[in-house]
Amino acid sequence: MSDVVEKTLTALPSLLSLDSQPGSAKLSSTSKLGNLIRGITELTSKHEEEKLIQRELTSIKDQVSSPNTSMRQMKELMVRAIYCEMLGYEASFSYIHAIKLAQQGSVLDKRVGYLAVSLFLNESHELLLLLVNTVLKDLQSTNLIEVCMALTVVSQMFPKDMIPAILPLVEDKLNHPKEIIRRKAVLALYKFYLIAPNQVQHIHNKFRKALCDKDPGVMTASLHIYLQLIKENSEGYKDLTASFVTILKQVVGGKLPMDFNYHSVPAPWLQIQLLRILSLLGKNDQSTSEIMYEVLDESLRRAEMNHNITYAILYECVKCIYTIQPKSELLEKAAKCIGNFVLSPKINLKYLGLKALTYVVQQDPKLALQHQMTIIECLDHPDLIIKRETLELLFRITNGQNVTVIVEKMLDFLRISKDDYTTIDLVGKVAELAEKYPFETMNTVFSLGGDMMQPDIPNSFLKLLSEGFDSDEEDRKLRLFAVDSYVSLLQSEPNKLPQRFLQVISWVLGEYSHLSAELEPATVMTLLSKLLDLKHTSSETKSWVLMAMTKLCEGGVAISVAQDIYETHSSSMDTVLRQRAQELQHLSQDSELRGRVLPRDAGLMPLEVDSSLSFLDGFVSEALAAGAAPYKPPHQRQEELAQAKALSLEPYSLSLPISMSSCSIADRQSPTLMSMSSGLSGDSTDLSHKGGSTTLKLDGVKRVWGREGYLAQREPVEETAQVEVPSPLRSPSQQAEADSTQSQTPTPTVTPELEQDKQQLASSLFVGLGSQSSVCLMGKSDPTPQRFRRKAQGRASSSGASEKTPTSLGSTPSPVDNLLCNSLLDSNLVSEPTNQTPQASQSLDTTNGNCHEELTDVKENNPSLIHNNEEPDKPKDLCLSSHLPTELSGLSHSEITPLCSNQSVNLSACHVQKEDSLQLVIFIFNSSDSALQQMQLQVDSGELKVNYCLSLITDSPVEEVRSHSVAVCHYSVTVKRPSVHVEVLGMLSYQLPGGTPQTIQFSHKLPLTTFIRPLTLSTEEYGSMWLAFSQDTKQNLTLINDDQDPLTTTLNVLKKKLQLHVVEIIGVEGIVACQLVQDQPCLMHCRVHAGTLAVWLRSPVPDLPDCLLYHCQRALQEH
Amino acid sequence: MQFMLLFSRQGKLRLQKWYVPLSDKEKKKITRELVQTVLARKPKMCSFLEWRDLKIVYKRYASLYFCCAIEDQDNELITLEIIHRYVELLDKYFGSVCELDIIFNFEKAYFILDEFLLGGEAQETSKKNVLKAIEQADLLQEVSHVG
Question: What is the domain-level CATH number for residue B107?
Fold first, then answer.
């Protein structure tokens, strides 16, 4: 019987050719499922969907329980139930019916029944027991398909306790004549091994048989088991090493049937599995490692093609080479591989490169040195994943000398990270570093960072201290250590410490000095009181100190110190200080009250938050009734409240709302600021609020554009400057000059400075790694390919240009040609800094992938690339611009950029900026001798079929292009969602007469700037728009310093390069407006502050401020 | 592999396959979180994500996102290729597959997946063999319907 079935089965596919559409795969548009799906897509609201599904489920429920429902219908019902479950609606009533279907249905209904079971239930579900008999029956069936289904479901889920019932049957299947059954049986055993290793212990020798199976598929399946076994006990399987090596050799040598090839790489999954097994076997075992050196070398050598799959193998190879006992030749090759990964423009490879580096760097720190510039660049990568992996790498190379810088980088990351899991992990790492490289880590950070530090760094440190780590004992030790080290710091020379550090010290002493047994509160009080007498102590620090004292004033001496302090400060000019002194005095007198107000270790207590300040309602309404002006909160009041999670320093903490839950470690204000803003929250202007906060709040913007709009008339700008610019004696421009002379010498290009910064960072990050000193590293940093790629492009292009003139142009090099060629080059290079070589042509991409490691390669390859591009371009370049559509011909167009080409067509593009849109023109040049027919150009802006970021309106479908002539496609493009570069993907399909259809793909990048247009506004209009916009970004940009007004110059540069409209410039501030086509405004407020240009962007469009900011930075850097 | 999810650009789940036992509540939570995270990523970003203690490997094909969760020591690139091979299989089976094919015939998509991955491991990587197994089952269906 089974033979007959088998014959029919194997014969059938040839009857119905595989390539023709399988009849069953057509859209089942008339089915009930089809109706359901269509019904759902037509709905507009979640609520409606819910109603529809509930109705559907009720109807399914009725039908499944009806005795008249046939198994065929049941199958259909199950499919619908699965669909409802996928949408998130529970259909648990159908579970039992799914099992029934698997049990009673015909072979085909079973298939759906088993599928439904495997989707509905998980291995601990009690209903699964009901399936055991069905599985038993099917395993014994003579129908192959039934056996397959049973094995499939068994290897996905099977109740642990019932394994013995079916184990003998599954074991038998290892000897089945069909390989598909053997393979599934092996995988089922693998599953059994995973969930109940003891149950399958006795059949280990059968695994060996599977390993030696003549079918490679069965052998591959058995490797899953071996990987698991060897992971647990590598010693027991050393004898198999030679076999694995032989298998790998055969695979790499292409001995397997072609079926196993994937993109012409032989059985990559098998290769990777074997490599993983080998690395486990060779770990810490010289003799075993030696067996595999040769095959590893072979694998490295064979995997040369540029396809993801070969990279996957290479990556596994590299990991293996670094895991087993080292062999220098292999290490060298592996290191080179890692280099290729790290330098790859493909972000996935870069990530893996970093990961590999992280993996190997402990053994080979020099490797990190080689790639230091790339690592530095990755630290600033816009993709957080890359950043995160870079930090991981840095974490591994941390030593006593670079720990400070690395910890700072980690804290930087913590500030932007939103993901809890990452935050926890990273905080743990910072803590680990802080423990490993004693507490001085943070002390150095504070001493070095000084007052320039963001307020949240000390805060996150304090949070770390207060929330603690895993064990209480550790926490206690750490805090005690902090107290001790701070006391000794205060005893030596407190006057040299920066303010923020003093604040941290005060808080820690206030909170934790009770941990130290020897330390009398009075001693600490005296130390702290000395700080108050220091001349340079800011009033903010003083209030921290006073708060710390409030926590400490216990015992006779302490109280008398408190008394003294009160007397000196109760008449202070500073209201905050005066208040703190009052509190100190009162609380020192009343120890019971103090205990209630300032309980010890209260840092972790959740606080009730009443952010609406409802308890003040009475006060407010009274005040309003008395004629007071209604309170208008400053713009960011809400945010501040949320951010200012205080560390229970101030007596207000019990009565005043402080948001505990909504705060993140990142972005917090100092506790004092919180207390001050809460102290003043009743005030009706934000002026006094600001007066108290001195240097912390730097946004002068409100002064000029208040809630009601433009305020310039009422408040002279100079006042703002006096409050906020640290030294009002110097004019902003002088100051900017002074700053610039300190930090940088003005040079025509910015790159060297950038490079210098990076190298400085590099030298601080990579000190103490390897034998070379950082100095000599700096000295010979030239050959790094990265550097070449970034800056030496000019060189490359010029050499490319000069090289090709004689070869390609022959006798008369016309200036037009040269110009165009240069522009070709330029356009290629423009996109370089973002690290994405135009992926228009696969060849370009692959060449780049190849040549990163060697400078010379790049040099040699570049010209040849250009050469390739340029030759076929030559005839058309001259005339391409004449093919511009008539309505565009009068306007100025961008350089014509080649997109891609093959032997018969060349595609190039240019764009024309119109007021309301961007016109994209694509030229199709037929360079072959015959006409292109049935030509179709699809332009799209996502991957493949979607049409999302851009709306494209084609108006000229061309179908045929004669030989050596040009067809033009013209699109009107507007941006729907801004990003730094907007990418257009396209595909041209065509047919040469008598040939097969061909396609060619390309991608074209348009910088956002091509979509930016000036927005003409009056200052008043600007003011009202400013308030209406929600997307908000602030950043400092470099000022361009020249003899005159740096602000005007800088804004003019931006105006020229990015087409912004400068609305008005008043003193040190300027307002600028622009729009993204079509009608998506963005406003920019600029202020000169401390030698930089502080810009604040607002727009109703998400991401637009960030993208625009990026281009502003670029524009200023290029200037 | 721990699980595989297919979802649309709008965040609608199209296929889910869990290779580790989890409660429905957890599954829903994970799905929601991941869909959000992946959809928020920009096109040129890395296809790999660290998420909890897992690695997420995702790739977008037209309007569909394919998203796999693997363990830390697993090979990300090969997972990307697993996704690709699965898409190739779907493509071959449906004949230039699109999202609608998967929506309306999701059970078929599951069958193909089960033939390709079993218990979270690549079972059969030969395109021909996977499709052969599916065809055989399908043809049986046709025959039985006719008969």
Answer: 3.30.450.60
Q: Which helix (H) or strand (E) holds A1061?
A: strand A1061-1066
Q: Model's pTM, two decimal places?
A: 0.53
CA distance A122 to A740: 66
CB-based contacts of A405: which residues, under 8 Å, 6+ apart? A761, A764, A765
Mean pLDDT of A178-203: 88
Among chain A residues, the shortest Cα distance to B143 is held by A12
Reported as a single tens digit per residue, the pLDDT across A883-924 is 776 666 677 778 888 888 888 888 888 888 877 777 778 888
Cβ–Cβ below 8 Å for B135 and A18: yes
> H-helix or E-strand containing A429?
helix A420-436
Distance CA(A356)–CA(A978), nearest Å, equals 34
- Which whole-number Å values give the CA distances from A536 to A251, A532, A675, A718, in the listed order? 74, 9, 22, 26
**A325, exposed or middle or buried, with CB in 10 Å at 0-12, 13-18, 19+?**
middle
Higher-scoring residue by pLDDT: A1079, A344: A344
| Interval A770-789 mean pLDDT | 35
Range of the domain at B91: 3-145
- Output the CA torsion A93→A97→A102→A106 (10° steps): -140
Q: How far apart are CA B72 and CA A425, in angstroms?
A: 15
Residue A855: predicted pLDDT: 34
* B70 pLDDT more than 50: yes
DSSP secondary structure string, A474-485? HHHHHHHHHHHH
Burial grade of A614 (CB within 10 A; 0-12, 13-18, 19 or more): exposed
Residue B143 confidence class, pLDDT cut points 50, 70, 90: low
CATH of A1015-1118, one of 3.20.20.140, 3.40.50.410, 3.30.310.10, 3.30.450.20: 3.30.310.10
Least confident range from A131-140, A304-313, A966-975: namely A966-975
Annotated domain spans of chain A: 127-232, 885-1009, 1015-1118
Question: Cis (ω within 30 of 0) for the bond into A742?
Answer: no
Best A83, A85, A126, A383 residue to mutate vs chain B (most B CBs within 10 Å): A383
3-state secondary structure of A844: helix
pLDDT over 50 at A254, yes or no: yes
Give the CA-trace dihedral at A1053, A1055, A1059, A1060, to 10 degrees: 140
What percent of chain A has a predicted confidence (pLDDT) above 90? Answer: 10
Nearest-Cα distance to chain A for B137, in Å, is 7
Contact assessment for residue A958 and residue A924, using Cβ atoms and an 8 Å cutoff: yes
Dist CA A151 CA A179 (whole Å): 13
Domain count for chain B, please give it.
1
User: Which residues lie below 8 Å from residue A1043, measured CB to CB, with a gap of 6+?
Assistant: none
Partners of A311 on chain B (C-beta within 8 Å) are 77
**How do A897-901 and A709-710 pair as beta strands?**
unpaired
Partner-chain residue, chosen from A122, A269, A352, that has the shortest CB–CB distance to B122: A269
Bridge-partner residues for A932, per DSSP?
Answer: A961
Chain-chain contact of A115 with B85 (C-beta, under 8 angstroms): no
Q: Do B126 and A217 touch (CB under 8 A)?
A: yes
Q: Which of A180, A308, A383 sits opposite B133 (nearest CB)?
A: A180
- Under CATH, which number does the domain A885-1009 receive? 2.60.40.1230
CB distance A86–B48 less than 8 Å?
Answer: no
- Of A720-729, A744-753, B40-49, which range is least confident? A720-729
**CATH code assigned to A127-232:** 1.25.10.10
Give mean pLDDT, residues A55-71. Answer: 88
Answer yes or no: is pLDDT of A107 > 50: yes
